[in-house]
Amino acid sequence: MSTPLLQKLTPDEAVARTRRSLDPATLAAAGEIVATVQRDGRKALVELGRRFGDLQPGDRLVFTAEDLQAALTRLPGDQRELLERTADRIGRFADAQRACLRDLDLPIQGGRAGWRFRPVQRAGCYAPGGRFPLPSSVLMTTVTARTAGVAEVWVASPRPTELTLAAAAVGGADALLAVGGAQAVAALAYGVEGVPACDVIVGPGNRFVTAAKQLVTGQAGIDMLAGPSELLVLADRSADPALIAADLIAQAEHDPDAVPLLVTPATDLADAVNLELVAQLENLPTADIARAALANGGWIGTGTLDDAIAACNRLAPEHLEVMIADPGAVTDRLTCYGALFLGPGTAEVLGDYGAGPNHVLPTGGTARFSGGLSVQDFLVGRTWLEMSDGKEAAAVARDAVALARLEGLEGHARSAARRLG
Question: Which fold has domain 24-222?
């Protein structure tokens, strides 16, 4: 019998395959690129764009809002309507998220205090444009930024197709920078002639994009440090092996570095999934990429469903599909994931293509402490304080004087004491 495409793994082995740090060589190369763009500006950006194949002599570096609208006008009607429907679903979900983030005005001793959510002024939205251009990522990032209220939205995407340009128009982008990689992130962070510095940079990309986002953090905010894409399917004997195989392949064809995983207490299900993988890959145009990615993944056998749930929480995958007899019974016990997909009708690809929730998600186990892209990534929660009740405010000021002197900060104490009248 031939070697199964999905090899059996222990939870420790699966964790080792997903928790991959940026290697020093990538960080060093990205650092050199970022420093060059920061120092030499637009000239360096164009030279790097040509070196890495993003630009040919005479190519546009920046597409204006008018250019984006023109691309949308040229798009066939059915494709335009598809982009608009998808954007509408993304926007509805983002709008509901925004409604959850309410300002606060709270009476406190001596006055009032509060918390206001306000959008950043300018956002940079990265969308991959290499092996598979992703206009869906353009919509996920730009629509969410606009829904948050961002005043100016830039897209960066190398070698943009007409569909990518049109998606930027549908998403409400002000312009598109037609380079990618670390050089695009540097331009968005520091600004170059014709490209303003952004307050926040979001969106998925390759390891050089991720390294550059790590390097510019502090100059600009970022959403997350995303690595290779992941799908973990939690399944029992009730699951359809053909559906599981189809979903694992869909994830695997993204990238040879993607990590497709199955967790199940049913060994016979894993065997059936492996047979389906062979059959479904036979006529798949992207089979070579998918096979390489499947070799990164595997299946984890567990003694019980409880053990399988524990493995899922430990792995904290980017995407978690639940294909068991009663998905609702375990939802509250699944605590660490980027996005959850419940039941056999809920393919992960429906999330990729705009059912509602965002598809820009944490990878590499970082879903233990972070979530997917949302309006919150484009908003800043700022507190405010107003002390206006003289008697009660004086009581707070007296405590401030006492605490300041306990800390040895007499200037603080005197500042507070001046409020005592």
Answer: Rossmann fold (3.40.50)
**Contact call for residues 199 and 121 (beta carbons, < 8 A):** yes
CATH topology of 8-20+228-357 equal to that of 24-222?
yes
Contact 302, 308 (CB under 8 A): yes
User: How far apart, in Å, are the Cα atoms of 210 and each of 87, 248, 330?
Assistant: 25, 24, 33
Indicate yes or no: pTM above 0.85: yes
* Annotation says 318 is catalytic: yes
The candidate with the shortest Cα–Cα distance to 340, out of 261, 259, 233, 264, is: 233
Q: Catalytic pick from 253, 276, 318, 321?
A: 318
Q: Is the separation of the CB atoms in 173 and 198 below 8 Å? A: no
DSSP-derived 3-state class of residue 233: strand
Q: Which residues contact 258 (CB under 8 A, 6 or more apart)?
A: 228, 229, 230, 231, 251, 252, 293, 296, 297
Find out whether 259 and 287 touch, Cβ atoms under 8 Å: no
> H or E element: which one contains 173?
none
Nearest-CA neighbor of 321 among 300, 305, 304, 337? 337
Confirm if 37 and 183 have CB atoms less than 8 A apart.
Answer: yes
CATH number given to 8-20+228-357: 3.40.50.1980
Q: How many degrees, rounded to 5, is the angle at CA 92 between CA 88 and CA 94?
A: 115
Give me the residue label for tokens 């520091």: 190
Render pLDDT for 363-389 as a digit per residue (tens, 0 to 9): 999 999 999 999 999 999 999 999 998
Cα separation, 177 vs 159, in Å, equals 10
Beta strands in 164-258 (DSSP E): 175-177, 200-202, 221-222, 230-235
Task: Return the number of other C-beta atoms located less than 10 Å from residue 97's C-beta.
Answer: 18
The rounded distance, in Å, linking the Cα atoms of 262 and 302 is 11
Q: What distances in angstroms separate CA 149 from CA 98, 170, 243, 368, one per listed residue? A: 10, 16, 39, 28
Selecting among 230, 253, 319, 321, the annotated active-site residue is: 319
Which residues does residue 123 pair with via DSSP β-bridges, in sequence order?
153, 200
Does 84 participate in catalysis according to the annotation?
Answer: no
Q: How many C-beta atoms surround the C-beta of residue 238 within 10 A?
A: 12
Instruction: Break the chain into its structural domains and give their ranges.
Output: 8-20+228-357, 24-222, 389-420
pLDDT tens-digit profile of 229-270? 999 999 999 999 999 999 999 999 988 999 999 999 999 999
Task: Report whether 58 contacts 237 (CB < 8 A).
Answer: no
Q: For residue 382, what is the enclosing H or E element?
A: strand 379-387
Two tokens at 115? 């918390």
